[in-house]
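FAQ: What does a multi-protein file look like?

Like this. Sequence, then tokens, then the next protein.
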Amino acid sequence: MSPREIRIYGDPVLGTRAEEVTTFDASLRTLAGDMLETMDNAGGVGLAANQVGIVKRIFVYDCSHTQSGLRGAIVNPVWTPVGTQEQTGPEGCLSIPGISAETTRYNQVFVSGQDIEGRPMSMVASGLMARCIQHETDHLDGVLFLQRLEAAVRKDALRAIRESAWFNAS
């Protein structure tokens, strides 16, 4: 396994909808392993394939330090809310370093998809895992969490990005 470069805000691949995965082979397993290592090295809890420049519908997650204790990958994820209860909390993104903002998401979701072997999988998730599923699936749809923010909060976040050293270095 090898860590990959995380694409940063402004890279067009982050606004690209990823394509369905149809081939479940060694290269997909390698991609998932590389993504987990990349996420771990960056200190994240989730990472979508387009964040490492690959436009395939797969994301990895690690909520093993939480009550859910889950770690792995979901291929071709589709989620729906379970109920109407929402959670609002700080959300950040490995592709937008150092920026976080209060973001509202559904508190509980049902997700289905496949594992890296192509086997069907599904789960009901709440809390951080539900937030992760929604955030990473947004990435696969070419949507950044900034687009989920209220207008005033988004304006402040975009100002912070423009003033950041990493944004001005590119």
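And here is the next protein:
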Amino acid sequence: MENKKVLILTATFGMGHQAVSKAIKDEIAAAYLGYSIEIVDLFEIINPSLKLALQKGYNVLTREFEELYNFFYYYKSSAKHNLIDGLIYKGYQKKFNYYIQTTNPQIVISTFPMTSGFMSRFKQQHESDIPLITVITDVVDSWEWVHEDTDRYFVPTQEVRDRLRLKGIPSYRISVTGIPVRKAFKVGQPKSRFTMKKNILIMSSAMGKIKFDQSFLEQLSMIDEAHFTIVTGTDTSLYDSLKHFHFSNITILGYVEDIATLMAEADLIYTKPGGVTLFEAINTELPLLVQDTAVGQESANIAFIKSREIGVIVEAPDHFIRILKEILDDDLKLYQFRNNMYSLKKEFDQNAIISALLA
């Protein structure tokens, strides 16, 4: 089979876009297509110093200035041609075009809105027929993801597909794939969930609103019917502050490579509503307990969790313990959440990515 160069364009804003890119790369590589696959950060192409500044700005805005972040987010998501991205395109399109011309990919896959925009403009300016596939990484249909000369859209849900069709995208260009996750998350559940002592996985990193301290751990330690695994991730200072506490039903972990195994062993996960974590849980059929947020794309993910009945939303930090106890006592509710996730997975076209490459 002909060797093709596949370029996956992404950006490091949160970990979601990168995680999706790696999942796609693994899926293509596992199909033995003989393709050369490279993941490249857009800002490494156009301006590495801009990358660092935008990353810091994104983190500060989403954690401390949600209203200001949402002002920019909803403006970009509702405007078909927004001035903010337009200025970046104007300043860096030539540099992007030069990169594409010199690397000469046969297929481009985009997991970040602006990378789709740059590639779309390249195709128009150079009358290029390089296929552009856009993979949407939250449960959204924002205009910032929609660009002319996009050949295929891989979207998380049927709802997003339908809303894109209302925006004028032909149905034959849209495939419902879920948000791509690594194969490890697609393995069936290894054990029955009707157990006497339930396993609760808590993803504490980037949570922000729950204060993880001795008092919080003591509250968890009094819930005898559950064992808690708290993963602090890249937050090394949080891990250092918690690792000295010892409770028989609480395990404290730092950065963990194999989150898939922890999810497979859990009965419930408490996390923030990021798109990738949401679909990792769906694929693992792991019910969600999710921290409420006003951050634009995450609030859309929360609306989806509610509408599909696959989890419970914690609207305020001081509600967490009460809601947790209620759901732990309700095996029927947990079963319903898992069953809804099982049904939801049937909507995903698991072969869409490979089929698109072969086409």
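Q: Is there any per-entry metadata?
A: Some entries carry free-text notes. For the entry above: The first strand starts at residue 5 and ends at 10.
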